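Table 4 source record.
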Amino acid sequence: MSTDSAVASVEGMMLKVDPHDVGRPVAHFTPDERAARGRAARAEVRRASHGLWEPSPLRRSPIEMLEDQAKTRLPELGAIRYGRMLASPYAFFRGAAYLMAADLADGTRTGLHAQLCGDAHLANFGVFRSLDRRLVFSINDFDETLPGPFEWDVKRLAASIAVASRERGFSLDRRRAAVIATVREYRRAMARFAGMRNVDIWYTRLDVASIAERLAGSASSKHLRQFETNIAAAAKKDSMRALAKLCTFVDGEPRILASPPLVTPIEDVLPGAEQEHLETVVRNMIRSYRDTLPGDRRRLLERYRYVHAARKVVGVGSVGTRTWILLMIGRDTGDPLFLQFKEAQASVLEPFLGRSEYPQHGQRVVEGQRLMQAAPDVLLGWERVTTIDGQEKDFYIRQLWDAKGSADVETMSPAVLSTYGTICGWTLARAHARSGDPIAISAYLGSGDVFDRALADFAEAYADQNERDYQALTDAVRSGQIAAQTGI
């Protein structure tokens, strides 16, 4: 990519805010009518039918689908993405949300919609600080969020348990038990939410103390100590920690250290560009994003000045999308703020559920996160960048670290994984209850375990498919069809 085109890709800010739902009429139904809708859905889609899954005879090659995704991403990072997906079948699963969305689209749908995470696997749940600075647990990835059938999220969560359990060497009985426990907790939590006042659902959340209580009944003393260690480590992840880990000082000013290919300072991404011009581009980015924040948050952001920026490679499925980290300084160098500007492309669900109602994908991600997450980042916002050749790139913005942490699924015992699954199941139900109709969904699920056992069947069947797709990627790399850079 030339310097001119690279610079153009981050300049020419344009923000579009569409008051799409102003004045839109809202229908209100009685609890009985809502429950009747859920029960009627059973006649259309039997709960037991969710356990039946096999690939469509017209299913495209997994490599073809992954390569389609790569067309909109930075080509120089594609090998890193494939290398990370090759680490294990579970790592592949994390990067293959598009494949699973296509597979789910071939099946039946309940018609009971909620705001979907779109990628609700075990590793996309975690802890972070809320506005009152307490550590809370919730979904923490919304790149693929879009309204859709509630069961799609539940199926992705269930399948992730089966895939992760296989990787841990758990028996079939233990894998099924973990999935059933998770889906049962989702079902029972939804029933409880169905009986709650709307405002109480909105304020319900799960904090770290509640998680510790749940784990106490299933985890060994060793696992409990590890949990406490992980929480303590997450609590320390803030901008001060990022400053110490990611930066050095040059003439008294902090600068982000180069660690290619994972962290590349902006002057190395855009070689030859004048420093003054780069700073103007970044300041325009910040101003554009600032306009999407509430007034009090804008005032907070305005207290910080821009210092430096770098491109950063993040995640597994996200590798190849454009992600920037911006270092800002407040009252002095002891008051840093790191922001992450992450590209938001079309959700993997859109080809199958229709386009987002929002005018740009950064806003889609932010609005979905605000709707589903227990305590969204106070600096969560979005912006759109228009390139010189007319291409538009959407971004959402949040703090890089604010006590963020996720569970180490790879070290969990069967009992701990099962308990962790129930925590994720409850959390997903709460998110769906806020955005969907908990009464209708609960009425569909019922009080028995038909749906729970069906999803245990589905999870095993889909874990088989995931292993076949993982092998296809392995074969494609070995044959030289695609390149993969491992160990990064």
